[in-house]
Amino acid sequence: MDIFLIIIAGVCMLIGLIGCVVPALPGPALGYAGMLLIHFSNKIEFTTRDLVIAGVVTVAIILLDYIFPAWCTKKFGGSKLGIIGSIVGLFVGVFLSPLPLGFLWGPFVGAVVGELIAGKDNMESLKSGMGSFVGFILSSGLKLAVVIAFCALYCKEVWNAYIV
Known about the structure:
Layout: H1 2-19, H2 27-39, H3 48-75, H4 80-96, H5 102-117, H6 122-163
Helix pairs in contact: 1-2, 1-6, 2-3, 2-6, 3-4, 3-6, 4-5, 5-6
């Protein structure tokens, strides 16, 4: 059963890494699920403190993932319509786009369109769109850092318990 848990946990970690850049996959949550799975193996046991801290970090990162793009859009001069446009653009880019990498360009285009609808000029609209893009990159980077830390912990624990 341990081998099964380790394999499934590893798969969760790998999909979690992919989920750090693909918004349709919950990267940090999958990384945390991988940690929980190896915790239930016979040879690896995390402290309750470690699991609680990892869980709190996971929830915080998930929340920041929704806040950062909107916050950066606002910081770059975006209005409410620009923020709404970036959120709509994200969903359109991910789920309805015939073009690849819609999760990258969707929020940008959505914020620009939202600002144009709000009556802003082209330069202000592009600046708002850039804010949305920067927010997406920042939140993806944070997610990636957390899931890489989870993966490193997974590798260390599996190595120590089963290899050494």
